[in-house]
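User: Before I run my own analysis I want an independent prediction to cross-check against. Here's the chain; please return only the structure tokens and, at the end, one sentence I can use as a sanity check.
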Amino acid sequence: MTTYLRTPDSRFEKLPNYHFDANYLDVGGLRMHYVDEGPSKADPVLMLHGEPSWSYLYRYMIPVCAAAGHRVIAPDLIGFGKSDKPLKISDYSYQTHIDWLLSLIKQLDLQNITLVCQDWGSLLGLRLAAEHEHRFKAIVIGNGMLPTGEEKIPKAFKLWKAFALNSPWFPIARIVEFGSFKSFSKDERRAYDAPFPSKKYKAGTRAFPALVPTTTKNPASEANKSAWKILDKWHKPFLTAFSNGDPITKGGDKYMQKRIPGAKGLNHVTLKGGHFLQEDAGTEFAKVVNDLLQTIKSPA
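Assistant: Structure tokens:
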């Protein structure tokens, strides 16, 4: 049985611009938190965060998309946010994260999903969309990719991976702020640090960088290659909304625009911001999602 920690609710009180009701599901014996806003009968917009953030990252986007008539689902990955946090780095793998999210999708019976993803949200979301294509109707990706271990690895990522695994100091809020153009307020830093009362809670954040396939020997490499075979034939809308200031994913948008058929003819955009473009251009990112959904209809 997995040993885990659960962050006290008091850590999340009075966070700026985050006033959403908490919802929970059991996924593999662990409690996963998710935001569920907007009309319950509407097609879902699934917003997946990455490393080392949580659904707080989408606080500017959730109300904009919900106000446009969409049901917005924004989970906290296991190990992050209000979700449970297994204690050991070895408790986390690419596949367990896939399984935990798939459990949420199945329990909520999400259909006609529009995936909105960034960072690790892309590594997980693109796999899920490819492996369960019948549940997804569109994809909007910002600053993300689906690596197979065959790509050239940016120096910035190599440094980040070493830092995550080896640094005794791992300041979550400062990391997110460093990856954004804007400066955070004291309360915003408190919000990003809230899930992690001590270093014991940070195993999930430490684990993620090492799980990215950087060689073909990575356990996820073959599954990601198989997912790309689906994406190479993906004709549903696939929109990129990368930022202009991310050294880690720079150029990934152009690569996917050329490779994925569903990207052809769409109004791809470049937003102003760093790696965490939801912080720098959250409202603009949300409007990109809404504009795309105005142009497409749900499958019959």
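Sanity check: Residues 4-295 form a domain with the Rossmann fold fold (CATH 3.40.50.1820).
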